[in-house]
Design a protein that fits this description.
Length: 340
């Protein structure tokens, strides 16, 4: 259970002020609203859910794109290149949310992301928001999903989520985006890149990045290998055949084609009815997460559980009781609040 990083209390706005600001596309209010939904303070929870609830009718049309890949694959550089293409050549606004599960340890990655996406972060059509997971992946998912919706309501028709592909974060992110893009490095097998086979299966497009200079040949070979690997998977029910391409986030070669593929995918999903189905599935996932989160909150707040929690945790730590029995005991103590 993640002990959140202590933050200084900040001045909060009223729900009306958040909603009005977001719907007017005010980036400062948007950023503050995301801080609100990321907050661990129980006093923020009610305002946060009201703001989300009222923003929801203004969401649903954006392209939600998840981008994953091992550390150093070039995700941030790629998003910047793609973002500049979207903002400058297509004249569209975009929001970028980055999840960084490693940040509690490395500390510096978040700042790193900000500098790597400097051009985009300073672009008038872009909104870049890094957030730390604080080692609590479920929490990240909930917050990222809600942050995504706030961005949509603020008038961003393209929303990107960058996640480091080393843990479970990609499964979670997969459940909240329409298109899932995997960035790979040339010349390294997927075992080497720490990628589980399962990730390939949920990918809509694999881009072998850094296909520049001496890497070109290796990137082309990697592309063939992944194409062959994808052929082994059964065809997806929604009719989209995952693609493998090469690109260079540095020279920006191939980046435009990747965005074209995202648009093509959206058009196909809209024409064959799968867009709605995917979105319904996303809504269901969201509900399940919200349910589990709510339950966890209730359990943490339960007076009887709170009284025993420390002692039970110590018992588990010292091997005096099995984790399973400990959890059972706490659940037995838990009394759900009676509904009013
Ligand atoms: N040659 C070359 N280098 C690249 C390319 N894309 C990114 N890089 C370099 O690779 C390094 C890592 O790039 P990032 O964009 O920070 O990678 P990332 O995947 O976001 O990394 P994390 O956020 O730490 O997981 C940087 O030094 C980039 O300049 C590319 O297409 N070609
Ligand atoms: Mg990055």
């Amino acid at each position: 259970m993640g002990a959140g990083v202590k933050r200084l209390p900040r001045r909060r706005l009223t729900a009306d002020q958040y909603v009005d600001g977001i719907l007017a596309g005010d980036r400062i209010v948007l950023a503050r609203a995301i801080t609100l939904v990321e907050s661990d303070l129980p006093t923020d929870a009610d305002v946060a859910s009201e703001v989300i609830e009222r923003c929801l009718p203004h969401t649903g049309c954006a392209r939600r794109v998840g981008i994953t890949g091992v550390p150093g694959a070039g995700k941030s550089t790629f998003i910047e290149a793609l973002g500049i293409h979207i903002a400058d050549e297509r004249g569209e606004r975009l929001a970028v949310l980055t999840i960084d599960p490693s940040s509690p340890v490395s500390g510096g990655s978040i700042l790193g992301d900000k500098t790597r996406m400097e051009q985009l972060a300073n672009h008038e059509r872009a909104f870049v928001r890094p957030s730390a997971s604080r080692g609590h992946l479920g929490g990240v998912a909930r917050r990222t999903r809600e942050a995504m919706l706030l961005c949509e309501a603020a008038g961003y028709p393209n929303v990107f989520v960058e996640t480091v592909g080393v843990g479970q974060s990609e499964t979670t992110v997969r459940s909240m985006v329409d298109f899932f893009l995997l960035l790979m490095l040339p010349g390294a097998g997927d075992e080497l890149q720490g990628m589980k086979r399962g990730i390939l299966e949920m990918t809509d497009l694999i881009a072998i990045n850094k296909a520049d200079g001496e890497n070109r040949g290796r990137a082309a070979r990697a592309r063939h290998e992944y194409e062959n690997a994808l052929h082994l998977f059964p065809a997806a029910a929604d009719g989209w055949n995952p693609r493998v391409v090469t690109c260079s986030a540095l020279t920006r070669e191939g980046v435009r084609e990747i965005w074209d593929a995202v648009l093509e995918h959206r058009a196909l999903m809209e024409s064959n009815g799968w867009f709605e189905r995917h979105r319904s599935e996303q809504a269901l996932e969201w509900m399940k997460e919200a349910l589990l989160f709510g339950l966890e909150q209730e359990i943490r707040r339960d007076p009887a559980v709170r009284r025993r929690l420390d002692a039970v945790q110590q018992d588990v730590l010292h091997g005096r009781v099995s984790p399973f029995r400990a959890a059972r005991e706490l659940l037995t103590l838990f009394r759900p609040p009676t509904s009013s």
